[in-house]
């Protein structure tokens, strides 16, 4: 199946995709700032260049786009119908890089939190989700990780191996 866009149109479209300061990142940052949390953004000295770094809580946050990070089971993640092998390999490399970065950050003593764009996309679920995110950040007794099992939601707490959040994708 061929692309519906010309190669020039596709090139312009792909070039316009932002890698930082995305709408989901800005939503999370504005909320955390409004709750009094202070943070740094895009810290290059840390593995994976985390989107949000909260040094006081030794916590980093990655705000992941569902397509680019292969959020399985999500309605926003669907491989394109053209150039399937390229996209499959691209997404798999991104997921492997996410897992590697998470392991490196944990080895350095950081708590890692992943936020999927779909979790904050709709206003109806955004407020409750952001409240839970804030509470997990300021509660230093919890341990966080990006779920590598993409069937689970990304903010997961590990208090006595209890899973706090389930997946609620449409």
From TrEMBL:
First-level EC class: hydrolase
GO molecular function, one term: hydrolase activity
Family annotation (SUPFAM superfamilies): Restriction endonuclease-like
Pfam families (alphabetical): Vsr
Sorted UniProt keywords: DNA damage, DNA repair, Endonuclease, Hydrolase, Nuclease
Entries under InterPro entries matching the protein: DNA_mismatch_endonuc_vsr (IPR004603), Restrct_endonuc-II-like (IPR011335)
Its EC number(s): 3.1.-.-
GO BP annotation list: mismatch repair
Domain of life the protein comes from: Bacteria
CDD domains: Vsr
Job of this protein: May nick specific sequences that contain T:G mispairs resulting from m5C-deamination.
Family: Belongs to the vsr family.
Protein's name in the database: Very short patch repair endonuclease
Source organism per UniProt: Duncaniella dubosii
């Amino acid at each position: 199946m061929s692309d519906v866009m010309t190669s020039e149109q596709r090139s312009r479209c792909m070039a316009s995709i932002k890698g930082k300061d995305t709408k989901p990142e800005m939503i999370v940052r504005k909320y955390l700032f409004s709750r009094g949390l202070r943070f740094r953004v895009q810290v290059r000295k840390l593995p994976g260049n985390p989107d949000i770094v909260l040094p006081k809580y030794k916590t980093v946050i990655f705000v992941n786009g569902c397509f680019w990070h292969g959020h399985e089971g999500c309605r926003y993640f669907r491989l394109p119908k053209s150039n399937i092998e390229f996209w499959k390999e691209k997404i798999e490399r991104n997921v492997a890089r996410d897992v590697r970065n998470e392991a490196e950050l944990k080895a350095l003593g950081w708590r890692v939190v992943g936020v999927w764009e779909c979790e904050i996309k709709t206003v109806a679920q955004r407020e409750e989700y952001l409240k839970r995110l804030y509470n997990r950040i300021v509660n230093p007794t919890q341990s966080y990780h990006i779920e590598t099992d993409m069937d689970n939601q990304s903010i997961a707490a590990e208090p006595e191996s209890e899973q706090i959040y389930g997946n609620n994708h449409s």
